[in-house]
Each structure stands twice: as structure tokens, then as C-alpha cells.
């Protein structure tokens, strides 16, 4: 049905479908490409998937001509209407292309348009022919400043100027220079300065490609001849800083004042609710009374105050406050309003497992301003129950029951002793402490899992670099009750499975570093900046058991069963590190390639011969080698024989992930993808229950699994639903088909994955 529709089905008689619009650059000795100029076209043809299939137009053409029918309206909304050729828009496109190249220094550029009409097919092809000519270069630069003080300040930073002699006369660079000079001046007290005060005069001689450039900064005047309210050539100082904490209830600049508090040079004007301590506001304020106005400090204050979750509105204004001698004064007024202090949510679910009925209840409570410092208290409680039927002889519980609770507090700053104030203010940080408890009753055992965590998170101002320090992360697993010989029955020879159900303790220290050039603020999303090429780098390292091992040695503790124990429970000791690099390259607004390379390694030592099961790597799944299900690949050439109960053995100490993916916008919110994945996991030691799983330098490359496939995604901007079909290409498992790529079998080699978010 999709491809049987004519592409011109909804093109009115006498009009033509814009089928192709191409840009050809003739005699091009510049670095300009046609791809860079596509966005200047006022009219582009319907989008093509994979360069040839107009899927959105085909979807639209599935609708009928009766626009009142709901089906036709719905299909048309999913698709894209035919782009009807418009000669006026074509002429505008030619003018915009020419102007864009002139702005980049190609003043002699010519743009001509060729059109080929195919009336029998109701289609039109348009080609824009561009001859750039030689660009103009800046041969000399002069500066004229009506105010010498401003001029001296500008020339202090002349080493950072981006416009220099010998560079192409690019008008876009001139605009960027205006912005940078304005920012530098506004960081040095010149509150009234704007980029409009900077102009350029370009002098060119006939027949010459050289440009004599003059930068001018002149005193502005209002249309009536009067001076502006904030003279651009004068520096401004901050007189007072006022916080108005109840701005929303006042609704205007006239506020009812119930209390005013002076604290370390700032004034806090309270309404009926003293919901933030003055010390918290003073710590988040970088605008200091008596200091020069600095636009950068205003932005830093915005960023710092936005960390306070209790606030929903922040606005910083400057008001003239007269003068003191030659100094001009400003009062800084920071308007704040708060959100709700507390919130709660309830979750209910029901289950039916082959006739055994159950239910689950989850309750979450959050207090966003625990001690009037915007500390966030989060408490979670969850309980679930499921009945059991059948023969229950020899079991200790006749049900599945679980009680889980967690309480955590997040502080909007670096909460630690001996940390200098200037360092706390320089970074955007938060501190978190949490306790968790989980009580499980199963037919064969009762298990208790408890934990405690103390971590720090901090980021740079642009949120492109994030760090997490897990200063303390304790996890304790305890089995108070189990059926007779329970562990020996389920895992007589498997140390991995035994470890999962035996008492064990993990006390770890971890660090994570994340770096990207992708900025995902609301402004970035609205300006489509997320479609720029970007990369991410993530590195993490963690270690466990070292402190406990040192204490055991210092006190002369004796080993039990070959290991040190705490209160009769063996603790783990290991080191683990991971690194992952991803990159997304946009071909255009609707097509991109994404790449991923990841490597991880963990090593047990001291008090452990094996890394805890929950800390080991696994392969396969929606975010791994997608030809395999989660925990069904590896380690190495280990053959699980597709046993669903053998996942416990399919984990390792070394991990390798490689992926490349082509992504294309289809229609509406739908995206398509084609991908190739490769990777596997391996063990450090030769474990008896994982034959073929050990990493060996002379053979590991033969054990790299590979798969290929296709995916369909729904991009709702803030989250993505994903359906991927992966098919095995190379299977390293012993006793299995090594190259399913040559002899594929659907049931054996295909795996379907449903997930939320992109795989990388």
C-alpha cells in the first residue's frame, strides 16, 4: 500500500512537485560545501530516507481527498504534504545563498538557477549553480574609539581577537568579535555596553581582493538626542544586594515586607514564609556589594540558585542607585518564588503468575526543603505479595513477600569538613547520603539486603563535565533462614551461584568521570543544537575491601576458610575500571551515524578470588551485542547450550563493546536504524564452571561475537521508545554454528529487544 501511491497524487493540476533541489559549486577553491548551504534554501523537496525513499510523502499520499474524514486527517498528520514548486521561493533561495557566501567573504559570488520541468510526471528539478570566485582578505585593521578608557580596555585583550590581518573578510566573524568584546566589557563593570555600539567600516579598492577594516566604538544617543539611561563608557559598582523571597505572592515589584534580614552584606526581604536561611542565599550569591558589575557573576548566581530545588522562579534585575563620586551605582534585586515543599506519589500493581495472584504497593514521599537549606529528603517504601499454590512440603515460606525501604538526603552543595568556601562556590555540587533495606521471603529462603551510601556529585558551569565520588558504598546480604541444604542443592559446584545466596559484604569506593560537548539545556533543545556532532566519554573506577583488609592485617585477625571475615561474613576485595567513548555524526538534520567503543576490566585479589556476581560484566541485550539476549553471550567461547537457567555463568571480568549505527528520521516521531555490533566478555581466571571463558591474547579476537540488525524508534524529544531486531553474524560459542551470517536461521539467530532510550 505504501509504495503503490503515486508521489504526485495530491499535487493539484497545473502545479509541479519539487522533486529535487541540488546545489553545485563551480570552480570551488574554498572549503565551502553544498551541505553547508542546504539550510539557506527557502524551499526543499520532501525528505528522502536512505537518499531515495520519500517515506513521509508516501505516508501522506495514503490519505484520501476527503479531508473531513478522521482517517485522512490522521494519516496526513503522520506524513508530509507534497512540496509544490514555487518560483518565488526559488528566487529567494538564490538570493539567500548569495548573501550567505558574501557574508563569508566571497563578494564576487554568482548564483544561477536551472529548472527542469517534467510536466508529464508533474515534477520539477531545481539546480543552484554557484561560482564563488576569490574571497576578500583583510589587509589592515584600524581602531577608532571615541572614549579612550573604553579603547584602552578593549585593546588590553587584543591578543584574543579572532579577526586578524590576512584572514578572510567573513562578516560572521565580525559579529562574533562584537559579541566577545561586549562580553569582556560587561565582565569588567560596563553594565550599559551593548554590541550595537561597535561598528565596522570596510574599504575595498576596485579590482582588489584586499579590505582595509576599521572598527569603531562611538558614544550612543537616544533618538531625541538625550544620553541613554546607562552611559556605556562608565563603570558600575554594586551598592546593595536584595533577595525578595516571596515574589510570586506579591505579583509585582511592590512587595509586602514582613521581615528584612541583613546577613554578611546582603539583605533578605521575607514574606510570610522564611523558607530559606540567609546563609544559604549568601553562599549561592556571587554578586558582592562594593564590587564592579560583572555579567559573568550574574550568570554564576543564576546557576547556583537553580541548584536549590525549592525554587521555581529566579530573576535578577539591576536598578540605578545614583553615584558616589565618579562611580555609578547599581542595586541588585534577586526575585525568588518557591515551589511546593512536599509531594507524594502512590503506585499500585497487580500480578498473575500462572494463576498465583499478587499485588504491589509503592509509596514515595519527598520534602524539598528539609532544614530551610533546600535539602531534599526522599523516602521510598514498597511492598509486594504473591500467593503460591501446589505442593509446599519442605518449604519455609508459602508466599513471595518483599518489603523494601530507602531514605536519602541530598544537600545542594559540597557537604564536607575542611573544604574551602571558594572551592565550594566554584563548583556546582551536591552531596547525598542514603540508607536502604530490603526484606525478601521466598519459598526456599529469607534474605535481607541492606545498604548505605555517601556520595558527591559535581559539574562544570556548562554541564559538559560531570564527576561522581562514591566515598562510601556498603552493601550487606544476609540469609537468616533457608531450607535444609538449600545452597548445596542449587549450586553444589558453582561458586558464582553460591556467592549470590551466601552472606557477603561489599564496601566500595568509586569515582566516575563524564565528559561531552553536548549541551542539553532547554535553550539548546529549542534551537536544535542537539543535532550538532557530539561525543561523550565516560570513565569509572572502583575498589572494594582495601580498608577492611588493612584493618584485618593490623589487628592480626586470623583467616577463616581462607579469607578474612567481618562478623562471620566474608568481604569482597577487587578493583574494577570501565571506559566508553561514543560519537554521533550528523550527515544532515535527518540522518546521522553513531559509534561506540567500550572496554572494562575487573580484578579480584586479597580477600577474594572472584568478583561479586553483581559487579561482573555481562554481554548481549538491548545495549550490547543485540544478536543475543541479555546475559546469553560469553564468556569467551563458553557454550551455554541456550539454557535459560545458565545465565549465572554468563558473566566475566573483561568486557569489549563495539557498535556502529545509522539513524534516519522517517515520519512523525518514527526513526529507523541499521546497526552492527561486536564484542564479548572474558574471565581473568580459568573457572571450572566457565570452560572456554578465560581471556587469552593469542585467541581472544576469534571470540569476538558480531551481529547486525534494524530498529524502529519513537522519539518523543525527552524520551525514546526503541524496538531493535538483532541477528547473529559470528557466534564464538563452542559447538555452535560459527558463522550464522552464511546460514541464518530465524528461530536460532534473531533476537527482538524493546527498550527506552538509545543504546548509546
Description:
- With 760 residues, this protein is α+β, with helices and mostly antiparallel strands.
- Helix content is 16%, strand content 40%.
- The strands form five sheets. A 16-stranded antiparallel sheet has the order 12-13-14-15-16-17-18-19-20-23-24-25-26-27-28-29. Strands 8-9-7-11-10 form a five-stranded mixed sheet.
- Helix 2 (55-61) packs antiparallel against helix 3.
- The longest helix has 17 residues, at 87-103.
- The model is unreliable at 521-530 (pLDDT under 50).
Highlighted features:
alpha+beta; 16-stranded antiparallel beta sheet; 5-stranded mixed beta sheet; 15 helices; 16% helix
Please describe the topology of this protein.
Layout: E1 17-26, H1 34-37, H2 55-61, H3 70-78, H4 87-103, E2 110-118, E3 123-131, E4 137-145, H5 148-156, H6 171-186, E5 198-204, E6 210-217, E7 236-244, H7 247-250, E8 259-263, E9 266-270, H8 278-283, H9 295-305, E10 311-324, E11 327-338, E12 342-353, E13 356-367, E14 376-387, E15 399-411, H10 421-426, E16 428-441, E17 445-459, E18 465-482, H11 486-490, H12 495-501, E19 504-516, H13 522-526, E20 534-544, H14 546-554, E21 565-566, E22 569-570, E23 574-588, E24 591-604, E25 654-665, E26 670-682, E27 705-715, E28 720-730, H15 746-749, E29 750-756
Parallel strand pairs: 1-3, 4-6, 7-9, 7-11
Antiparallel strand pairs: 2-3, 5-6, 8-9, 10-11, 12-13, 13-14, 14-15, 15-16, 16-17, 17-18, 18-19, 19-20, 20-23, 21-22, 23-24, 24-25, 25-26, 26-27, 27-28, 28-29
